[in-house]
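FIELD: query
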Amino acid sequence: MFVFVCAGCGAELTSPLSQVTLPIHARQKYGNGIQLPVLMESGTFAVDPESWGPPWRRWEETDPEEAAARGIYAPVHALSDAVPGAIVIAPGDTRGTVLIPENAGGYCCGLDWGDGPNMACEECGLPVASRIDDCSLWQAVWLDADAVRRHTVDADDADDGPLSWPELMAEAKVTPPVEPIAGWGSRMGSHYWWSWNPQWEAAAGHALAHLLVASQGHPVTVPDGLAEEMFQRALDTLLPANAPPRRAVLAGPARRPAPDADILLVPIHPQTGETWTPADPPTSAYSVPLPFGVWLWLAFPEPHLPVVPASGILPEGVLRDDPPAPRAHHLFRADSGTFQDTLVRLPAARSPWLREILQNLTHHLRTGIF
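FIELD: result
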């Protein structure tokens, strides 16, 4: 467990936290006027290894070799020159901070980081973080890597380390594919509607970039069901049809890969960021990573309803009879921003055919696959 303290005066700025991997949807911008929930679970933090946020530099002002050295292999609108290593936490886990009113950019519906750090240490006034809660952005506090220090602390409830894959399977923390989405309130009050989960759309954008690389320019087939809804329409649009198809299958804990699979859809460990690897992987199979909660729902689509809120654990073999969640009213669309951010960071993005997909992203947005 760790606490983060002010680099200027040493005052504690957070409650005790444990480290997890950075969520794939951390940089997602979703919809227009949408009220997204908190990004991080309370009691956790994640570190972004890359630069993100102001100051920005346009691609035309950047040497492509410098960009490649930073792990960006195709043109982007702009590169961040911020210090890498920002730490993201839940807003409720901050301590001893105050807002900086003159830096409180945004205000469409909340705060963003357009004017730089908007939170300061209460003790010494050093700018230390950015509070983000504007519409269409995941609510979070991003601690400036240069303005804070990490201290180890002893905690009575500290765990012994990351969960094993079997322990994760036993917890069965799934991410539902459809959720009620909240719009910002009006005079008539807040309004909600059922739609595809933004986390699924971000996961699809991330995985789709890997699927295109794994395709090697061939058609790709994915399993029937939700995986087909997530990926097949986009794959059929972006890949040629006149070549032997490559087969993608789900694989992971308690789900052995098919021996003839070309591509494996596998889970990411939510605490370590490790991608699951089979003990005897198919020869040359490409692993496409998915967030664990999304992968678990895809791999084991039976209802995961083990808990009764009023009375605890259900007896084994007993299922609740709650009505199924409503379906989304539109076809699934992968998140275009996450797709682009992922693909430009894969070395294969240097390939002309993948560059062409990136250059035509606006056209593909109009087709409705993003």
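FIELD: remark
Confidence is low (pLDDT under 50) at residues 304-311.
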